[in-house]
Amino acid sequence: MSQPITDTRIALIIGASRGLGCAMAAELADRGWSVIGTVRGSARTPLHDLADRHRERIRIEHLDITQPEELAPLHERLAGQQLDVLFVNAGTTNNEQTPIGAVPTQDFVDVMVTNALSPLRVIEALDDLVTPTGLIGVMSSGQGSITNNTNGLREVYRGSKAALNMFMRSYATRQTSADRSLLLLAPGWIRTALGGDDAPYTVEESTPLLVDVLLSHLGSKGLAFLDRNGQPVPW
Ligand SMILES: NC(=O)c1ccc[n+]([C@@H]2O[C@H](COP(=O)([O-])OP(=O)(O)OC[C@H]3O[C@@H](n4cnc5c(N)ncnc54)[C@H](OP(=O)(O)O)[C@@H]3O)[C@@H](O)[C@H]2O)c1
Fold first, then answer.
1. 191 C-alpha vs ligand 1 centroid, how far in Å?
2. Mutation test of ligand 1: which of 89, 112, 167, 227 has the most ligand atoms closer than 8 Å to its C-beta?
3. pLDDT value of position 176
4. What span, in angstroms and rounded, lies between the C-alpha atoms of 146 and 140?
5. Ligand 1 pocket member 160 (CB < 6 A)
6. Are 1 and 77 in contact (CB under 8 A)?
7. Does ligand 1 come within 6 angstroms of the Cβ of 48?
8. How high is the pLDDT of residue 42?
9. Quick check: pTM over 0.85?
10. What is the CATH code for 10-227?
11. Are 165 and 143 in contact (CB under 8 A)?
């Protein structure tokens, strides 16, 4: 078993192999945090390159969020850690512009299970590792806003993030202590594998903003749905 990280500030980022998750891990490490980042599978990823550069600050763990049987072993490997931040970044899209009625059932299931159900399974399995005043967050999307949906498109993805938001609100109502910070983060449209080449924002310009919002919300009690500038997004 790996030795627990003993630094005072520790973030666990679920889905940190590449894209925004990896960039947030790098930003937090640059700000002096210790980061446990998860990858799935055995392939080398950009997180491995990052860990090579920050051996003392980055630890790599393994989790496919759609495989619930992997959660208890991960919890066991993390036993003894006191997490200041648990952030579930992992997500997917089918990139389909077809109306919802034409979406193949398996596409619907894959996106909904990954984006809506699995993040809450992860949170419910690992939340006892988070300090009583720590932050539990998930990467949502502005496309999860029902109020702001005036043009459709990416209908399954939108629905999955709206469902994620709803499940997080349900989770929030079940918290017996009001001291934890809960966050749904809408990062903006960013050029990653998921965001695509037409996105207006780069990972480099976005990541410091996202980490600023995360750390600003740490210490605020209760659940918020915030954009990359820390502004509330309408549900
Ligand atoms: N980019 C945007 O414009 C944008 C906008 C709004 C919200 N978001 C959200 O931001 C998050 C990160 O997206 P990104 O843009 O950085 O996309 P990305 O570059 O495609 O990265 C997606 C990440 O999620 C991981 N992942 C996917 N399915 C997983 C699973 N079943 N188990 C564990 N990890 C899994 C991937 O791991 P692998 O390397 O193993 O595939 C990868 O680390 C997602 O939740 C996305 O919905 C992105």
1. 12
2. 89
3. 83
4. 13
5. no
6. yes
7. no
8. 94
9. yes
10. 3.40.50.720
11. no
| Assigned token pair, 101 | 């009625």
Q: Name the token pair of 98.
A: 């077809």
From 95, 158, 194, 197, the mutation candidate for ligand 1 (largest count of ligand atoms within 8 A of CB) is 194
* Number of neighbours of residue 203 by Cβ within 10 angstroms: 20
Closest residue by CA, ligand 1 atom 47:
91
Is 65 a residue whose pLDDT tops 50? yes
- Mean pLDDT across the stretch 134-155? 96
